[in-house]
Every structure is written in C-alpha cells, then in structure tokens.
Amino acid sequence: MRKTITAIALAMAVATPAMADLVVPNLSYRTGPYAPGGIPYADGFNDYFTLLNERDGGIGGEKVVNPECETAYNTEKGVECYEATKGSGALVYNPLSTGITYQLIPKVSADGIPLYTPGYGRTSAANGKIFEWVFNYPANYWDGASVAIKYLLDQNGGDLSGKRIALVYHNSAYGKEPIRTLQELSKKHGYELIEIPVDHPGQEQKSQWLQIRRDKPDYVLMWGWGVMNAVAIQEAANIRYPMENFIGIWWSGSENDVLPVGDGANGYKSLAMHGTGMDYPVYGDLKTYVYDTGKASGAGDQVGSVLYSRGMYAALVISEAIRKAQELAGHSAITAAELRNGFEALEITEARMAELGLPNFGQPFAASCADHGGPGHALIQQWDAAAKKWNLITGFIAPDDEVLTPLVMEDSAAFAAENAIAERCN
Amino acid sequence: MPDQLLYATEAALNGLMAGVLYSLVALGFVLIFKASGIFNYAQGVLALFAALTLVGFQNGQVPFAHLINAVFGTDLHHFGWQLPALVAIVLTAGVMVALAIVIERYVLKHLVNQPPIILFMATIGMAYFLEGFGDIMWGADIKKLDVGLPQGLNETIDAVTFEAFGYGFFIDNLDIVASVVAALLVISLTLFSQYSKQGRALRAVADDHQAALSVGISLRFIWVLVWSIAGFVALVAGIMWGSKSGVQFSLSLIALKALPVLMLGGFTSIPGAIVGGLIIGMGEKLFEFFIGPMIGGATENWFAYVLALLFLVFRPQGLFGEKIIERV
Amino acid sequence: MFYREAGDFKTSYADDSQTFPIRFDRLRYYAVVAVAFGVIPFVINDYWANAVFVPFLIYAIAAIGLNILTGYCGQVSLGTGGFMAVGAYACYKLMTAFPEVSILIHVLLAGGITAMVGVLFGLPSLRIKGFYLAVATLAAQFFLVWLFNKVPWFYNYSASGQISAPERTILGHPVTGAATTASAKYLFCLVILFALAWLARNLTRGTVGRKWMAIRDMDIAAEIIGVNPLTTKLSAFAISSFYIGVAGALFFAVYLGAAEVGEAFGIQKSFLILFMIIIGGLGSIFGSFAGAAFMVLMPVLLKNILVGQFGWATDLAAHVELMIVGALIVIFLIAEPHGMAQLWRLAKEKLRLWPFPH
C-alpha cells in the first residue's frame, strides 16, 4: 500500500512543474488562523502580475507566472512549498511570514535564489554584506519601531523623557523583533518601556488590557498579526484608551483589524509603508485588464485594501527588479542569480512610481551591494470609522539610523560568525 | 482599600466573567461525554461553524459561493438580504440540529463500543472536516458578528466602585450579558434534564447505556438530542466570543480553554464544569496579575493546565467527577 | 503460497526467538532495508528528501516513541510537541556550546535530557489515569512551549527568539545547515531511525515490554503479579521521551534548520503524532511507520493532485484537503479501529491461504 501511494505521488510530483516563463512563486496562505491577512496580500500580488501580462505582455516580453502554494502560515508547509517550486526555475520568494523567512534564509543562500521580504522577516538582512540573497527594502521592523518613536517625539516637542510606552506584542519571533530597538531607544530618549506579550492567537487579552488600564501608559505600540489586532483594538476601545495614543505596526493596520470593532476603532493609528485606497491611476488599468475580464485573483473583493496594496507593492518591486535584471543581463529570460543583481542595482524613483500609475504611493529608494534595507521611512495613517477609510496624517518619517545601524551590524555579525560567512562588498 | 487589593479584586471579577465563558464551552463537552462517553474535541470547531453559519445567514451570503464560482464561473456572493439576528439564530440552530443528525447517522452509529481513545480521535477527524467544510461554505476571511449585544465598559459599575473605593472597576458589558446567558442556559438545561421526559431519558442513558436500552429508550435519538444541545451551546459560545473578536479560525481554539476546566471539574459533572470554569478563570487572571509580571507574562495558556494538574494529583477524578472504582 | 509457516523449522532457541521468525517476513524486511540503504540515497533529490522522506523518518521516530508510551504502556500523552521542543532546544544549546563534539552525540544527549524531563512530567501518571492524564500532559505541552519562548538563555539571546542550526558535519559531510545534500540528510535520519526502531522492537519483545503491556492491559492486576507500576510507568515515559527528544532534535537541526517553538512544536504536533500511531496501529512498531507515512504523504499527495493535476485554486484545494484528511481519519477509524497494522495482519492471514482459500 505504501509503495502504491509512493508511486502515485512520484507521478504527481513529476507531472506538475513544466514552465518556461518568469516564475515568481506566491507562497500564500488563504487558510488557517492568519488567512484574513494572507488573502488580500496574495490577491494583490497576483493581480499586479496579471496586469503586466495582460497589458504589456509580461516583462520585457516574457510572461510572468505565479504558481501559488498554500503554506497556512506553517513553516513545514512553507519548506514543502519551497522545495516543490524551486525546481521549476523560481526566481524569487516572498513568503509573508517571518517564521518561514528564517527557515528559507539558509536555503536560498545555498540554492542561489533571492528572497524578498518587504517589511517583515529578519531585520538584520538589511546588511547586504552578510545576507547576499535577502532583500527587505523599503523598510523593516526596527525602522518601524524607530519611526513610531520619532513620531511620538514629534508629538511631544522632541522630548519623551519620563513618558511611559507600552508595547503589546505577538509572543513570537515576529513580535519580539522590535524589543531590542525600543530598549535602545529608551536609553536615548529616556522613556520607560513596558513589555506586554500576547500569546498566539490572541483571542483573549483581558489581563493585558486591564494592566494597561491600571498602568495608564502614555502610549501603546502594537506588534500584532491576525485576530490579535482586532481583539486588542476592541479591548482598547472597551477600556476607553485614547485611540490616538495607540499605534500599530504596518501589519496591525489593515481594514480587517478595525472593521470588526466598528466605531470604537475611530482614531486608531498605524504605521504604513505605502499609500492605500483606490485613488491611483493604476487601478484604471487593473479594472480594464484584470477585474473586468474576470481574471482577478481570489474572490476579487479585497481590491484597494491595505494588505492588497501591500501585495501589489511587493509585486511591483519584484517586477522592477526583474526589469533591471533583464537590462543588466542583456536578455529577457533571466536566471535567479541575474535577478539578484537586479535587486541589488534596483532604484525606484518617484518619477518611476508615477509612470507605473502609483504616484506618491511608496518612498523612492536605491539598493546597493551593502544596503539591502532601503531608507526605512514610514508614514502614519489613522482610521476614520465613519468613512471606513485610512487617512495618511504625516509624510514619510525617517528612522533613527544612528541607533539602528549598530544594531543591524551587531545582529548580522552574530549570524555571520555562527555560519562562517565572510563579508562581501569590500 | 489599598490599590493592589483593588486591582486584584478587579482582575478576579474579570476572571470570573471569563470563567463563565469557559464553562459554557466546557458544558458542551460534559453533555456529550455523559451521554455517549465521547470526549468531543470538535466542540470548538462546532462553535466556529455555528458562528460562521450565523453570520452567513445574517448577511445573506451564498453558501459555497467560492466553490460554485470556481466550478461554474459565476460571480455569486450575496443573496442581497439582511436577516434579523433572531431569525438567523433560529435558522443556525436548525443547521446545528441537522448536523447532529448527520454526525449520528454517519459517524457515531458506526463507532459504538469502540474504546474512548478511538472516539476521541474520530472527533478530531470531524473537527478537521468541519473546519474545511465551514471555510468552503462561508469563506476564510474575518467576519464581523453583530447580534446587538452591548459591549464595552459598564458605566454603572465603574461609577459605583469609583464612589466607594476611588477606583472604577472595569467590567465588560459583553461579559455581563454572557454570564447572564450562561446562567440561564445552565438553569434551563438542569430543568430540562430533571423534569422533562427526554431529559430523564438522557440521564438514564448517562447512567447506564444497557439498562436504558432495555427499558426502551432509543440510544440513537438521545445522541442526536445531546449533539443538538451541544451544537446549540456551541452557537451561544460562538456568539459571545465572536462578538468580541470577529468570526475567524482562531475561534475554534477556545476548545483548548475548556479542557483544563473539564479536568478540574470532572468530565461527567455539569456543576463541575461551572465551578471549574470559575476557578480556572479567576485563577489564571490572578496568577497573571500577581506572578505574571515577575516571570514575563503570557502565562494564561499554561497556568490553567498546571492548576488543573495540581488539583488532579489530589483528586484524580476531578472535583465533582464520579469516583473511579477499580476492580481486578 | 509465499507466506507460510509450514516447513519453516527451527533447530535452536536463537532461531526460535528471532525477530522475524517467518521466512517471508524476514526476506521482506531485508529487501526494505536494502532499498532504504542501497537505492534511495542515490536517487533522492531535494524535493523528495525535504517534502517526504526526511519528515517521514523523523515522524516515524517520534511515532515509535509515543507508541511505546501509549500503545505499549497505555498512557495517553498529548505532550509530544512539548517534548520534541525539549529535544530541539537541548540539541541547539549543545551544538552551540560544544561545536567540536559530533552532532550524533548531541542528538543522543538531547534525547537523554528529554527523557529526564519526560520522567518529571510522567510522575503524575502514577495517580492520574485515562483521559485525565491525557489532558494533564497538555500542561507539559503548554508550559514547555512557554518556557522556551520566554527564557532568552534557551535561544542564546537572539533578537527574535528563533533558533537556527549551524553547520555540523559527520565524516566530512555536512548533515545540518544549508549545505547539506539530500542524501546526507536522509541517511543521517535513516541510520538513527534504524537503530532506534531495532532497539524498540527488541525492548518490546523483552521483559520491559511485557511489563509495559501488563500495565496497559490492567494496571492493578499487573501490580498484583509483581510488576512495579512506578518503575514500569516511569521507564515507559523515559524511553518514550528519549525517542521523542531525538525526533525533536532531528526535526529542528536536520529538517527545518531554524525553528520557533510555538509554531514548530505546538499542540498540533502532539495531535499529529497521536494520529499517526492510532491510524498506524497502537502497540505496533510497523504501525508507527505506516501511520507516519500516511500522515506525511496524504497531504502532500492530495495537494499535488488537487492543485497540480486539477489546477484548483490553492485555498479551495487546502479546504478540500482538510475535509478529505478529516473524513479519511473518520472512515479509517470506523473501518479499522486497530489501524493499518491490523490491515497488514489481515493481509498476511489472507496470504497464508492464498491461492487456495478453502
């Protein structure tokens, strides 16, 4: 019986991948506890490539295919997906999971496939000298933490001393990322940091918010994902915590997080890496070529949401990197290694964003051999519950590189020492 | 009163409220365990499924829209109506009864006389199935559940305690409603099992399957009945938890919250489920309050289990469980 | 025709008490071992190693471990995920603290440490029985996961709490880290599995195993005939945890390469492994293998059929896959509650008479 099954499986696995185009696998999750976040991201990612295929006939004349593989935010399935797709000539991976990213970093480095993790993953991968194959521009978690503090500094006339800031975080690799940065920053700015962990999945947070109600911190920062966000915002509304003092990371700032709470969420703020909403020219093309022709990914009901925009943004950066790589390589059917060069030489200017139909959507950035992290600027957006809409309330804020750079160097040096990696780019 | 004591009282009160919700889930377990000896792990998924169905009916979602669209290339999503909450609840209860009949007909009937571990595993299999089924039927995205329950700080309690102690206690309106509903549910279940004909039959089955069969009680009917009741309890639990966090996958994990309650109270005792829920709810909140900050917080997941374990070492059958008599 | 006892005479005690007394069984066993060691390492590629074989081998070790405790000694445990985490973190600490010592020793030591933790959490089993014990072991599951997440010493104070396995070699070939070849991974796990399965098979045939089974079948009766419940139950916990710890160490170091405790060793893992031994067959070493193969292969197979062959949307396929796996489990339990091992026994009964069933 086992042999029969093995035989069938063999037949299946051999029969699946057979493509010659530009393969950009989409390791998505549309099931499991984090599906509400995974669905819009995957839809945006797919739709943008569909647009390129339908409107421009692909990139540089090569069609892009996105074989989708379901990870359910689970690292084992992530590994299976990676192994299943890498044989088909995959060019770049974007797993939308910090856990899977950690898993894939050594694998992609050995296999020579770029890994693109915008706004998530391993922060110190911003150091291109150590992490040759990993890119996480335009911004990472530590940038986010620093930008949030910068914003609070702004609000308080440049002085946070004596203030108390609580960090409500998802008790996992992802949620713990900002702690060290916030601790360093607290030394510099003299605020007191209160760390409040919330265990997966975060359905029950009464104790945490009672603690906040008692302690009355001046500000609350949140590193949440999935249902934890909605519950936290609900509990904050319940204890009447002033919403304008409550700031989430960009993964805690989507419609899914605030809509279930209703009016109580009004005024909640979150960081953002990019603009959102449908007021961009690119949506005209998307409508003509993708939505109206019935080629939209998924149910097609996520268009214009924050996470949809983020998926689209990731797809845009990847497609620009492919374009750059084609230019550098001189031919259009590029390999993964050539794409890595494209990622490293990528420069996205505001003019280019406008040309692509997304003016004032993201920050301009330029990568280099040593810098895989980008400038790390971020915006602050605020939820308007009546209009059911996120409004941007600041321009791009720069992080405090003076604090961040040594941290990135320290962490990446530790990784290099553990894995005996020599520095590049010297 | 000193501040620390006030805060602790507040935490304890909130713990009691949370405990009532745990009891509600545990109640579903106990009912099924008593009547059929099945440790029903699917109880949490039942709650998720019930809540999904309720929201689906309320918003007039087309069931299996995703599947239908994929197969026939249509673009169906909504029927375009909004049902009042009460109608939707009644309809959902109907679905839960239908589900109970299906489960009895296709699963339980075939598993009579199997050892408990096999039955337990079968319910986990059912949990997987229902999870996939619920997602396919209604979609995996997060849904807002609103049946008009009040939420947020209770002003009166806040004001009164502020008057009395100079610190306003935070009690969530939703928790108060949940406690009242749970209390009503327990009272009506007790009345039902004590005074109605079916209820007495149910107790007879719980007491001794064979004796019950021999006096002409239909075991299969009782099973359908008890799974329907468990489905209804799951619906209530789903509404309470779903109102707070929206309806999505994580709702099914509340089953894990009910397990320590069961251990503590005993698998076979309804009062045990209630008292166990209250002890666990209060215990974990107080532990998080006093000890949590010293050892880094987020202790709630395991503390309930450790507490129950300690209880069990002294009373291996739980607080109110039937005494285990062993003979060779 | 092929499978028969008739004519298979034994002339010494050693012959009589060998593991596979029937000739056909013995030959089949040699054939499987020959293929596993002699053929697969040469044809295996990354996909097959990482998606099928390595997880299968590691889960088989864990399943044997749990089968010793649950199948042979009758103590239901839902703490498997937590014990695997102990193995993984012990291995990580040892690997980073003593880089010059061979990884094989680290893996075995990790198993030993897990055995000690297992005994500790096994103590309540002397008083608590049945389902109460099952739920009580969940205390171990949740507490251990919390501990490894909370105490930075366990993950060497890394920023995110992730642990990742540095490269370690055996005889010059890397077996952990990214440079490991598919066949090195496979062989490393296979050798350990082979040794441990051989050990388990012989343990369960001997005095220790008989004591376990006596406790399983009726603990009071066993006590009366002179089986010490304390040592018997605790030895089952210790040996079972040793296996599970080794599996956890391999799972982290060889298979995943990096792990996060809540995600990789959560409660789902405990259920998965319990499924394996129930579907495979309680109290059977072969059953542990069959169950592990079933639970590892089934989802991969379904996914490849639904997405790869039929071209379904991945979410639809994932939901259907969940339904099919759930339904299969239920159907299996209804059709053959004693698991695949029982099917195998029945098949052998049939073979014995074949082709003349009357």
Overall spatial form of chain A: globular
Strand fraction of chain A: 5-15%
Question: Sheet bearing the most strands of chain B, described?
Answer: none
Measured distance between first and last alpha carbons of chain B: 57 Å
The radius of gyration of chain A is 21 Å
Biggest sheet strand order of chain A reads 8-7-9-10-11-14-15
Tell me the series of helices and strands of chain B, N- to C-terminal.
HHHHHHHHHHHHHH
For CATH, the homologous superfamily of the largest domain in chain A is named as Response regulator
What's the count of strands of chain B? 0
Question: Strand content of the residues of chain B, in percent?
Answer: under 5%
* Low-confidence residue ranges of chain B: none
According to DSSP, the number of beta strands of chain A is 15
State the share of residues found in helices of chain B, binned by percent.
over 70%
Averaging pLDDT over every residue of chain B, what do you get? 86
Question: What is the top-level CATH class of the largest domain in chain A?
Answer: Alpha Beta
How many DSSP H or I helices of chain B?
Answer: 14
In helices, the fraction of residues of chain A equals 40-55%
Mean pLDDT of chain A: 89
Number of domains of chain A: 2
Distance between the termini of chain A: 57 Å
Protein name (chain C): Branched-chain amino acid ABC transporter permease
Keywords (chain C): Cell membrane, Membrane, Transmembrane, Transmembrane helix
Organism (chain C): Albidovulum sediminis
Membrane topology (chain C): Multi-pass membrane protein
What does this structure look like?
Chain C: Keywords: Cell membrane, Membrane, Transmembrane, Transmembrane helix. Chain C: The chain crosses the membrane at residues 27-44, 50-69, 76-95, 101-123, 130-148, 183-200, 236-259, 271-296, 316-335. Chain C: This is Branched-chain amino acid ABC transporter permease. Chain C: It comes from Albidovulum sediminis. Chain C: It is a multi-pass membrane protein. The complex is a heterotrimer of chains A (426), B (328) and C (358). With 426 residues, chain A is an alpha/beta fold. Chain A is 44% helix and 13% strand. Chain A is globular and about 60 Å long. Residues 1-7 and 9-19 of chain A have low confidence and may be disordered. Chain B is mainly alpha-helical. Chain B has a domain at 28-255. With 358 residues, chain C is mostly helical. Chain C has a domain at 22-266. Helix content of chain C is 72%, strand content 2%. Chain C has helices at 13-16, 23-38, 40-43, 46-72, 80-97, 103-122, 130-150, 182-205, 207-217, 219-224, 229-256, 261-264, 267-280, 285-309, 314-335, 339-353, and strands at 163-164, 169-170, 173-174, 258-259. Chain C has a two-stranded antiparallel sheet. A two-stranded antiparallel ribbon of chain C has the order 2-3. Chain C is globular. The mean pLDDT of chain C is 89. Chains in contact: A-B, A-C, B-C. Chains A and C meet through α1, β4, α3, α4 and α6 of A and α4, β4, α12, α14 and α15 of C.
